[in-house]
Amino acid sequence: MLTPMNQMVAEAIAAGQAVPAFTCYDFTTALAVVAEAENQGRAVILNVAPKTAGNTAGLRLISALRTLGEQAAVPVAVQLDHASDAQLIARAVQAGATAVLADGSAGTLEENIAFVQQVRSLIGPQVVLEAELGALPGNEDKAFEQSASQLTDPAQVARFVQDSGAQLLAVAIGNVHGRYKGEPKIHWDVLEAIHAESTVPLVLHGASGIAPADLSRSISFGVGKVNLNTELRTATLAALAGQVEARRADGQNVLGLMGDWEQAVTEVSSATFNSLRAK
Ligand SMILES: [Zn+2]
């Protein structure tokens, strides 16, 4: 069932859990993610990257994901991830997105607030708005190594949430997009200070590479949504690379290869759901 993203996240936090948001570049991945969510009885968020949403095929994918969410036995949200283009946001919402990350984090605090407000007036009250404060290095669509990040300033949090109207807040606390250079260093003191200031649930992006115990721990600091992308892609490509020749020999078995793909996604999403429980 389609469920407002802020509502499903609030319910997860109350149950000592966080909701994973998996980037879906395709329908096969989304099918496997939702099937595993149903298997575990957990809510899930299907994320669509802005690059995907930028053309007709991507907008049709959003519509298909919405239908998938409507038919699912568990709460599902369809979110446009990291969008800084208001027109792109409007098109994605029209195509069926139920949530948006209105990302004004590249600008000043004032510009960020103004952008989120502008998006709200554009999309109306029904669509759930996530915003980001601080800067997460890296690119969601490509895995590469990064280290530095501009941490979220806890002193700005209360005002940002209040003035922007954001319903979820993505934070930069040492997490990065893509692959980590060495061990990720999560700044727990910063997360704790943000948690004390925020009236809305927190979102952790770039969770691929963060230890399961740390993901679990973050839930007790107000994190109710965790974004994953790289880990899913890595597992998918590894599974496909290992099976293409065998499936070719097996009568050009594309259906079998898609099964391998789904299996890889199932394994990653299963492990993720298990991590996203407060211990
Ligand atoms: Zn992100």
From TrEMBL:
Q: Which residues form the signal peptide?
A: none
Q: Tell me which InterPro entries the record gives.
A: Aldolase_TIM, Class_II_FBP_aldolase, FBA_II
Q: Pfam families attached here?
A: F_bP_aldolase
What are its cofactors? Answer: Zn(2+)
**Known SUPFAM superfamilies for this protein?**
Aldolase
**Its domain of life?**
Bacteria
Its name, as the record gives it, is Tagatose-bisphosphate aldolase
Protein species of origin: Glutamicibacter nicotianae
